[in-house]
From TrEMBL:
PANTHER family per the UniProt record, alphabetical: GLYCOSYLTRANSFERASE, UDP-GLCNAC:BETAGAL BETA-1,3-N-ACETYLGLUCOSAMINYLTRANSFERASE-LIKE PROTEIN 1
Domain spans labelled Glycosyltransferase 2-like: 9-129
Organism, scientific name: Pedobacter puniceum
N-terminal signal peptide: none
Alphabetical keyword list: Transferase
Protein name: Glycosyltransferase
Molecular function as annotated in GO: hexosyltransferase activity
Pfam families for this protein: Glycos_transf_2
C-alpha cells in the first residue's frame, strides 16, 4: 500500500490489437493513481501486438504472459486467479483506453463507500483514430444499479469502466468461460447480492471500429438467453419481464445486422403477430430464421 492507497490490479487481455495496445497500456501507466499492478495477457495474437508489448516493457515494468488463444473469460480468470494481488480489480480491453483520473476517482469512491462491491462510470465512444464521436446515453447512468434495473437494460455498465473489490469474486465466482457475454453475467451475479455504485463522469474511451462492431451480435443474443436460464428461480413475473425485454433486444440486433432481410421479414402481418398472444410462437419462428441466416 502506497501512502494508504490500496493496490489496484489492472488486467488487460490482448488479442490482435497492434494498432491500439500501446495507447491502451500507456493510459494505465499514466494514471494519476500510482499504486497499480498492470497485468497484460496476450491471448494468441497473430499480429505485432506481442512485439509492441515487449517494446513497452523495456521502459515500464508490468506483468506479461503470452498464451495460446483461450478466449476472453478464461484470460480474465487467469489474470485474477494467477496474478492479481490488489484490493481492487479493473479490466481494460486492449483496444480501449482510460481517462487519466479514472482509477483515482473510483478508488476514492470505493474507499468511502465500503458497502459497495463495484463502481462503474460513463464512457466516451471513439473511432479508430481515437477521435471522440459521442458517449453512452447519460440517462442509462441515472438509475439505481439493482439486479432488476441491469437485467431490464435500464442502466448500463461498460466493462472498461468498472472497479471491483477483489474479494467479490471469491463470493460470486469468476467469469463464465462458456458465455460470449461474460460481463453481463458477472454484473447480474454481483448486483443480485451486492451494491453497485456509479460515477456519471466519462472516465474511459470505448473504441468502436470495424473489427469490434459485433459481427457476433446474433450469437451474443443466444448467449444472453443462456444467462437467463441461470435465473429460472426468480419469481415468474420478474423472469417473464426480463425474458420479454431480451427478446426485443434480440429483434433489434437482428434488424441492425441484417436490415435488408429485416425489411422483408418484418412485414406488417408479422409485426402484428409480435404484439399478439402468439408472441412467443412468433419469436421462436424468428430465432429459427436467424439461425438459418447465420449459417449461410
Amino acid at each position: 500500500m502506497i501512502n494508504n492507497h490500496p493496490l489496484v490490479s489492472v488486467i488487460v487481455p490482448c488479442y490482435n490489437h497492434e494498432n491500439y495496445i500501446k495507447e491502451c497500456l500507456l493510459s494505465v501507466i499514466n494514471q494519476s493513481y500510482k499504486n497499480i499492478e498492470l497485468i497484460v495477457i496476450d491471448d494468441g495474437s497473430s499480429d505485432n501486438s506481442i512485439q509492441i508489448i515487449n517494446q513497452l516493457r523495456t521502459d515500464y515494468e508490468f506483468i506479461f504472459e503470452a498464451q495460446a488463444n483461450r478466449g476472453i473469460s478464461a484470460t480474465l480468470n487467469k489474470g485474477i486467479q494467477k496474478y492479481a494481488s490488489g484490493k481492487y480489480i479493473s479490466i481494460l480491453a486492449s483496444d480501449d483506453f482510460w481517462h487519466p483520473n479514472k482509477l483515482e476517482k473510483q478508488v476514492a469512491f470505493m474507499e468511502f463507500n465500503k458497502g459497495f462491491a463495484m463502481v462503474c462510470s460513463n464512457s466516451y465512444i471513439v473511432n479508430s483514430q481515437s477521435r471522440v464521436d459521442t458517449f453512452f446515453n447519460e440517462k442509462l447512468f441515472d438509475g439505481l444499479y439493482s439486479f432488476n434495473e441491469i437485467a431490464l437494460g435500464k442502466c448500463l455498465i461498460p466493462a472498461l469502466t468498472v472497479l471491483i473489490r477483489r474479494d467479490t469474486f471469491d463470493r460470486v465466482g469468476y467469469f463464465d468461460e462458456n458465455l460470449l457475454i461474460e460481463d453481463l453475467d458477472m454484473w447480474l451475479r454481483i448486483s443480485y447480492s451486492f451494491k453497485i455504485g456509479v460515477l456519471k463522469e466519462k472516465l474511459a474511451y470505448y473504441r468502436k471500429h470495424s473489427t469490434n462492431v459485433s459481427s457476433r451480435s446474433l450469437a451474443m443474443s443466444a448467449s444472453r438467453f443462456k444467462i437467463l436460464k441461470k435465473w429460472q428461480h426468480l419469481p415468474t413475473n420478474i423472469y417473464t419481464k426480463i425474458e420479454r425485454n431480451w427478446e426485443l433486444i434480440a429483434l433489434n440486433e437482428f434488424w441492425d445486422m441484417y436490415p435488408d432481410e429485416a425489411i422483408k421479414y418484418f412485414n406488417p402481418s408479422f409485426r402484428k403477430l409480435l404484439n399478439s398472444s402468439y408472441r412467443k410462437f412468433a419469436f421462436k419462428y424468428f430465432v429459427r430464421y436467424v439461425l438459418k441466416l447465420n449459417l449461410r
